[in-house]
Amino acid sequence: MKQPFCTPAQALRRVLDAAAALPVPATERVPLDDACGRIAARDLCARMDQPPFDRSPLDGYALHSADTAGAGEETPVTLPVVMKLYAGDAPAAVLPAGCAARIMTGAPLPPGADCVLMQELTDGGEEQVRIYAQLQPNANVVFRGEDIAAGAPIAAAGTVLTPAHIGVLAGQGIPDAEVFRPLTVGVLATGSELLEAGEAWAPGKIYDANGIQNAARLRQLGFAVERTHCSDDPEEIAARMQELLTRCDAVITSGGVSVGQKDYLPTVLEMLHAEPVFAGVAQKPGSPMIAAQVGEKLVFCLSGNPFAAAATLEQYAVPALLRAAGRREEDCIPVHTRGRLTTGFSKPSKGTRFLRARALGGLVEIPGEGNAEAHSSGSLSAMMGCNCLVELPAGSGPVAPGEEVEVLNFVQ
Question: Which region among 147-151, 194-198, 243-247, 335-339 has the lowest average model confidence (pLDDT)?
Fold first, then answer.
């Protein structure tokens, strides 16, 4: 598994390329009520104009614009009201010249009408109406197909369907959508020191936080998850990973990737005849991370340090898994922005360093009020409330409030 550490950009490119080369996930058709957050498996296009007819955007009167010539507060024009139209009605006749149609919001314009006057500029008459304003043709008309025309794209294949997509599809009378089936990810925490939450604590033991935190993040993104943990024994790790790989589309491990005497994941990957995607990233935290491929399935081996695991999960595993799940590549990659610090960080960075942070409205808060100890890889609580990583380039000194920094926003 040994190869030179790659840069963060190289690591991301390699896992995205590996994910894109995997077989396309199976698809299923689901009702629109269940489609939000799912990934479109094919291009979705409008099958009809929306709105399907010229309609009124307000309560008022449909008119021939020529009949409003000269109308004003001091020179009202009086017209007979010959029909009334509500939303859902279909006009039964052409509006004759010199006549008005009482019309409500959403109702179709009758043939012949070319404008709508809001009722506030009339006397509100039911049998005849006095109008106090002159209109141009097409005033206050929502035209057929103005929102979306038949054949226009709604969502490209690989798009995560949002409530807005669902609303547009429903407006087309489309009852369901073809989407990719969710991938199942196996999450394996390794370490003889680990206990499951709820077990009685014993000296020297700790409760598994990495596994359940990684699983929670994956479920948040729409993946199905099978989670377990095991000891540091390489035979047991290999057996558990093999079991997961028979049932899951990918596996994420935590722990055992560094150079300690019980860091067996590189050995386990060799036992499984894994092909390396990369082994090690030139960054802090998470430099020992390994990405590999076993057959047609990806394996991500993350550090056992909680923040290192969380950071590299966001930077590399999440983008690759989303790509493998069928998302468009541009929607899988953490968005880079710039932000101005409200708090600082007191240590220099010999190599590329990533800090957990909270970004809002162009401002970025680093937890811990500049205390570097709050950013140790073993610190778990400082991650709460964070929605991004701050990237400090190699060779950077301490950073202070007011400085601009590069921000990697977590994928949503």
Answer: 194-198
How far is residue 343 CA from its own chain's centroid?
A: 28
Exposure class string for 323-356: b at 16+ Cβ within 10 A, else e:
bbbbbbeebbbbeeeebebebbbebebeebbbbb
C-alpha dihedral (83, 87, 88, 94), degrees to nearest 10? 30
Maximum C-alpha span of the chain? 96
Element (H, E) at 30: strand 27-31
The β-bridge relationship of strands 224-230 and 77-85 is: unpaired
Structure tokens that stand for 143 in this block = 């035209």
383: confidence class by pLDDT, cuts 50, 70, 90:
confident
What is the full DSSP assignment across 103-120? E-TTPBPPTT--EEEEGG
* CA gap 371, 354 in Å, rounded: 15
Q: For 297, how many CA atoms within 13 A lie in the half-sphere containing its CB?
A: 21
> What amino acid occupies position 196?
E
Q: Where are the beta strands (DSSP E) in 98-175?
A: 100-103, 115-118, 128-131, 153-155
In degrees and rounded to multiples of 5, residue 49 shows phi and psi of -65, 145
User: Residue 82: in which H helix or E strand, if any?
Assistant: strand 77-85
Residue owning tokens 């000296």: 203
Q: CA neighbours within 13 Å on the CB side: how many for 213?
A: 20
For residue 77, what are the β-bridge partners? 131
| pLDDT for 142 | 98
This prediction's pTM: 0.90
